[in-house]
Amino acid sequence: MPADDASAARRPTLTEVAALAGVSLKTASRALNREPNVAPSTGARVRDAADLLGYRLNGIARELRRGATSALVGLVSGDLANPFYSAVASGIERELRQHGLLLITANNDEDADLERNLVEAFLERRVRALLVIPSGNDHEYLSVEGSRGVPFVFLDRPPDRLAADCVLIDNAGGAQSAGEHLLAAGHRRIAMVADLARMAPQRGRIDGFVRAMRAAGNDAWEPYLRTEVHDVRHAERTVKELLSLEPAPTAIFTTNNRLTTGALRAMRGLAEPPALIGFDDFDLADVLGTTVVAHDMSAMGREAARLAQERINGHTGPARTIVISTSITARGSGERPPR
Amino acid sequence: MPADDASAARRPTLTEVAALAGVSLKTASRALNREPNVAPSTGARVRDAADLLGYRLNGIARELRRGATSALVGLVSGDLANPFYSAVASGIERELRQHGLLLITANNDEDADLERNLVEAFLERRVRALLVIPSGNDHEYLSVEGSRGVPFVFLDRPPDRLAADCVLIDNAGGAQSAGEHLLAAGHRRIAMVADLARMAPQRGRIDGFVRAMRAAGNDAWEPYLRTEVHDVRHAERTVKELLSLEPAPTAIFTTNNRLTTGALRAMRGLAEPPALIGFDDFDLADVLGTTVVAHDMSAMGREAARLAQERINGHTGPARTIVISTSITARGSGERPPR
DNA sequence: GTGAAAGCGCTAACAT
DNA sequence: ATGTTAGCGCTTTCAC
Predict the structure, then answer these.
(1) Neighbouring C-alpha atoms within 13 Å toward the C-beta of B220
(2) Rounded Cα gap, residues B253 and B266, in angstroms
(3) What is the spatial distance between Cα A231 and Cα B43, in angstroms, rounded to a whole number?
């Protein structure tokens, strides 16, 4: 660190800049903000003084004066190490940055209480909008906020007991397509490995899949339904167990990226692997030849940011829901016939 | 949105809470902050009033009064959609949250000017510390800040013309191991596909690899060196081109996760693929059987956050450098013999 | 145990 | 074109 002791203590304020430039506080403010009605020579003198002192605007003071609302947008989500969340976050950040807004992120660790604390912390910081990929189930505590002008947008899961904008994936539709895709390839004994059924997206995916089976008059899937599978290891074990059944399922549908990873691990090295379709696309799925229910995660973030943006700009009106469509990306694993 | 028009406009302030509770401003402040010297009954009355009004502390005002420094730590990095950056960000956030700090993230789009703008924006917001995974090469503009008490930590790439804490990967060591690993399997014609050579981590990886080759007296790699390969598509093309040479290389070393992805795409479906080692571990590398130079990205974030934390707590002293070690994770692709 | 006054650094409103 | 005054919402003296 350079030893610049003299200035180490405190940052210079606008008052000091003004004093050095020999002008009033307000003139200094005008000059640095490039407002009109400042003589060019005065402006230059002020800016020189600012540079000399190493002055930097105090955004906190500005924001307080301008109405105590920041240029920050909060995102509370699951762990960014999960590519689903990070892809969404990336889409959000990119959109916000276009509008001069910054993104604060916090991980709820899939804990409803922590989620609530983080939301409170963001609100204290006077975020302009709050984006939530919820973990908790009750969001009524947010209802006062919505009415106080902090817009919320929910992603991936609709808010509970609260009307608010949200961006969802067509979970039921995507899962139904997956089911139909496997049926069309001739499968009947189709296993579904799902995460916690209490989570809305999982519910939708389960329902969609079941709908496809019912419509085809197929009930051979029923012994192979597994829910409450929440991590990769558990998914791997579950798929191994499914494949050791007699008769074994000839196809597997996994309802999110973690579970698909587990299934791929379980199936590694199998001479005659079952067919597989996973919900959520992922890196290298093309190399692995894994058929997936794909959807645009980055667009999801972008749309959510856009909704927030519009509310920030004063848009009123009823809560809106945007549904991100899905499509089957066939890469081989979902097209394997029953053996 | 619930139609709660009356309160939609403005948030209640502490003054209003105090008025409703029939106490002075200061007493209200004490009560809500749970400071000593407040009669229990008074405290309860104030808190009731706060609940009734839907009061929420204005963190901006508090921060201004307390010294204009926020509870925010900034991270400027590449796109969070890249698992390397998101893993690091996740490690940082987790560590900061333990200490009541929040993470603001912004993507520099690998553009030095944008990076500088984002850094400025963060500093205006009075972040407590600034973490940078640099894209630009000149960081001298930050030197005034360092001396003004905003700690910086650089990740992955050392700062240029500036002494600051940083957390680096043992790039040269990891790449050298990769080279030795391939040599030990009997390879001589080893291709290296590298990213922009001007970036320090790439330089280190290139140097480490070359050192391994020199030490073994092997120069058969030289025709197969490719640098300035910056994205997946380019990597895929480059590897295809390498494999069509006569004689073709029998092994490939890719110097980051993007390039490894490209190589895997290029090698997809090959009956006799060359050996492959990639720098950076990745999801599903186990399923694909890809040997990698692994390192703990989450630990990298954690260490960086820790360094920042210590500086925030007043630690002074010379700039420190932490080096994250690497290790070869053998999964098959790097152990294939030359054909 | 409680309150009055001052002020953090800036910008808005109103002079001049 | 420039300056003066007030005040954002809170915490910090210092007094009672």
Answers:
(1) 17
(2) 14
(3) 45
Give how far A38 is from chain B: nearest CA, Å.
23
Q: Which residues pair with B107 in a beta bridge?
A: B77
pTM for this structure?
Answer: 0.91
Least confident of A218-222, B145-149, B170-174, B189-193: B145-149
What's the angle, vertex CA B104, arms to CA B87 and CA A78, rounded to 5? 50
Q: Which CATH architecture has domain A171-294?
A: 3-Layer(aba) Sandwich (3.40)
Tokens of B145: 């800040």
H or E element that contains A69? none
3-state secondary structure of B26: helix
Most confident of A63-67, A178-182, B123-127: A178-182
Number of H helices, E strands in chain B: 14, 12
Q: In what order do the strands lie in the sheet with A327-329?
A: A225-226, A190-193, A251-254, A275-279, A291-294, A327-329
Distance CA A206, CA A176 (A): 9
Model confidence pLDDT, tens digit, residues B96-113: 999 989 999 999 988 888
CA distance B295 to A30: 50
Q: pLDDT at position B135, please?
A: 82
DSSP-derived secondary structure for B270-326 = -SSPPEEEEES--TTHHHHT-EEEE--HHHHHHHHHHHHHHHHTT--SS--EEEE--
Dist. CA B57–CA A59, nearest whole Å? 18
Residue ranges of alpha helices (H) inside A33-77 are 40-53, 59-66
**Superfamily, domain A72-169+297-324:** Response regulator (3.40.50.2300)
The mean pLDDT value for A172-181 works out to 98
Residues 8-37 of B with CB under 7 A from strand C: 23-27, 30, 36-37
Please count the residues of chain A. 339
What is the dihedral angle through the alpha carbons of A182, A186, A189, A194, rounded to the nearest 10 degrees?
0
Nearest residue: Cα versus C1' of D5: A26
Out of B86, B122, B261, name the one closest to residue A81 (CB): B86
Residue of B328, B321, B325 whose CA lies nearest to B157 = B321
CATH 1.10.260.40, chain A: domain bounds: 3-57
Contact of A117 with chain B, judged by CB distance below 8 Å, is answered with: no
Give the pair of three-digit tokens for residue A260. Answer: 């698909």
Q: Which nucleotides of D are covered by protein (CB under 7 A)?
A: 1-13
Q: Tokens for A47?
A: 């800016």
Task: Please tell me the distance from the alpha carbon of residue B86 to that of residue B90, in angstroms, as a whole number.
Answer: 6
How far apart (Å, rounded) are the C-alpha atoms in residues A184 and A190?
12
Domain with CATH 3.40.50.2300 in chain B: 72-169+297-324, 171-294
Nucleotides of C under 7 A from a protein CB: 1-13
CA atom of A30 to C1′ atom of C12, Å: 12
Q: Which phi and psi angles does B150 have, rounded to 5°?
A: -95, 110
Q: Which CATH architecture has domain A3-57?
A: Orthogonal Bundle (1.10)
CB A63 within 8 A of CB A69: yes
